[in-house]
Amino acid sequence: xTTTSSIRLSDTIVAQARRDADIFNRTISGQIEYWxxxxxxxxxxPGFDIDRVRAALxxxxxxxxxxxxxxxxxxxxxxxxxxxxxxxxxxxxKALRDAGGAVGYDEQGRLIRTLPGxxxxxxxxxxxxxxxxx
Length: 134
Hints:
ParD-like; ParD-like antitoxin of type II ParDE toxin-antitoxin system
């Protein structure tokens, strides 16, 4: 007996599935299942090792060692992870910020460095030129 589960998908994916389902005479869920099976098949192609992609994402494998297809999967996964940060990555970013030393741009476009305890040091302000030098 087949069981089903509910999952959340973006409106964009559902719209694409609806469009392709009509073209290929599938149900929307059938189209998404087809895409899942297709993705599984791609990941099982010789020369593509999803474990190597996972290792690279975890910082355990040099990205330069990935094959072209592995690199494409790595970049897509990395892009997805950056677009929707996980609870763990948010915790990691908060810990980095609280420890001080994180460098980035703030809402005003200034280059800043975080200080221990939550303060910031402005390294460069586009409106005022370079502020701090080390």
